[in-house]
Amino acid sequence: MKINSKPVDMKAKYRVAANEYLAMGGSSFSVFKEGTDPVYSVPDVDAVVKYFAEKSPVQDPKQNRIIDISAK
């Protein structure tokens, strides 16, 4: 792994951003639980609710990903 094209210094400290699930060790990311000085922000669900409230109505991207084969 590299940061700014330089190898990660295994003895250095880095600040990372993660959602609460990962920060608490979810999906086997247990190393995140070793972090110090956490900074908490808006919970994920609140951020999503706010986004949809501000951007509504949200447009369907119409990617034709679902094909009805019942008539075939």
Automatic annotation (TrEMBL):
Name by which UniProt lists this protein: 5`-nucleotidase family protein
Biological process per Gene Ontology, one example term: nucleotide catabolic process
An MF annotation (GO) of this entry: hydrolase activity
Pfam families: 5_nucleotid_C
5'-Nucleotidase C-terminal domain ranges (all copies): 2-34
Domain of life: Bacteria
